Sequence to fold (222 residues):
Amino acid sequence: MDIHGTNALVTGASRGLGAALARRLAERGARVVAVARESAALDDVVASIRAFGGHAHAVPADLGDKQAIHPLAGAAAALVGPIDLLVHNASTLGAVPLVPLLDTECEDLERVLAVNLVGPFRLTKAIAGGMAVRGGGTVVHVTSDAAVTAYPTWGAYGLSKAAHDHMLRIWATELPAVRFLSFDPGEMNTKMHADAMPDADPATLADPDDVARRLIATLEAP
Fold:
């Protein structure tokens, strides 16, 4: 994939991997639409991209809100044109500290599924059809080993990621003109990881910027 000149939409772009990826894509010449709930932090990311001459726009939105999806897709298209690269990076653990699945509130599970599964389903539905009509495009799902390994207390998050992985496989069979990629970044030094595992040593965790570089290398590989 040649990233230069592409239109990219990155969710969860206000910090961590999403912010790093938005910056690195812009450095490669992509026109970036950065999406997150936290508008102030999102504006800072976009400002840092524009400071080096990159092309980026901030669109605050909650992926767990059904009413936000079509306005988000429309705003992205109006700002940069049809989306060529869609990165589903936004994610939530649910309530923290993490608890066993038996102790998980139904409302907490619903919120995790709304953000991690149903929101990406709606956004893919809004964007990938246009990719298929144009004969190309890439959709990336940032996944986790919790999708394949049953970790105690990670139930809501893990099952949401497992379902999203399988949903991506179904999309891939139904839309062969579109490239679908599931990317596991491993354990990173992020706020989400600190919320989940506050005792973890940050020195043992990957830098989100290094992971963003690895993802871009994967995208650019023939």
Q: What stands out?
A: The domain at 7-220 is CATH 3.40.50.720 (Rossmann fold). The two ends are 7 Å apart (CA to CA). Residues 189 and 202 are 6 Å apart (CA to CA).
